[in-house]
Amino acid sequence: THIKREVAYFLYGDILMGLPFLTEAPKDLLERLCLDLEWQAALQDVRIFREGDVANHLYIVVRGTVLIIHSDKPDRSEWDVLTKYETGTCFGEIALLPGLRRRLATAVSSVVSELCYIRKDVFLDLLEQYPAVKRFTFKYVAQQRRRYSKGTQPVQNFADRTYITYIVCVD
Fold first, then answer.
1. How many CB atoms lie within 10 A of CB 32?
2. Angle formed by the axes of helices 131-148 and 120-128, to 10°?
């Protein structure tokens, strides 16, 4: 309904407009995206997704910090931080590239975090209706992928931590 769309836009519109690839998006696209956002809370050290998982969502950090980590060691005894996402940023966007089905790294909340996510199929369907936004989005995603290939920073041994393996979702 119209009221539901306006409320969703009021709650999440500023967050979406702050994402680099949606700054020029028309209001009706942002309103439709806001309707499809799902809310999620992640406690500290919660694994949001694991490298190799099927990539079904684009995540937005509403509050908090999420680390994107990777390990080349078979026993996962040492991790490298590829990048860090804080309030107002998004991650998991590389999964939006055509042909990619699996996560390229692991995402872990480094503090209690509030996230929103949108399903990949919903996001891509909406982008089909806005070719200019789609081109800019894929350009941004390709830049992010190149960023991952640059230097990493070793971090403490995440394998020794106890992970809380659930995520609180509220409809």
1. 18
2. 130
Q: How far is CA 19 from CA 91, 109, 145, in A?
A: 10, 19, 16
Q: Per the structure block, which two tokens stand in for 72?
A: 């080349």
Q: What angle do CA 32, 134, 171 make, to 5 degrees?
A: 30
For 79-135, give the DSSP string: EEEEEEEETT-EE-GGGGSTT--B-SSEEEESS-EEEEEEEHHHHHHHHHT-HHHHH
Note the Cα 170 to chain centre separation in Å.
17
pLDDT tens sequence across 117-171: 988 888 888 778 888 888 887 787 777 767 655 544 444 333 333 333 233 333 3
- Classify residue 113 by burial, with Cβ atoms within 10 Å: 0-12, 13-18, 19+: buried
64 and 44 Cβ atoms separated by less than 8 Å: no
pTM: 0.77
Local structure of residue 160 (DSSP, 8 states):
G
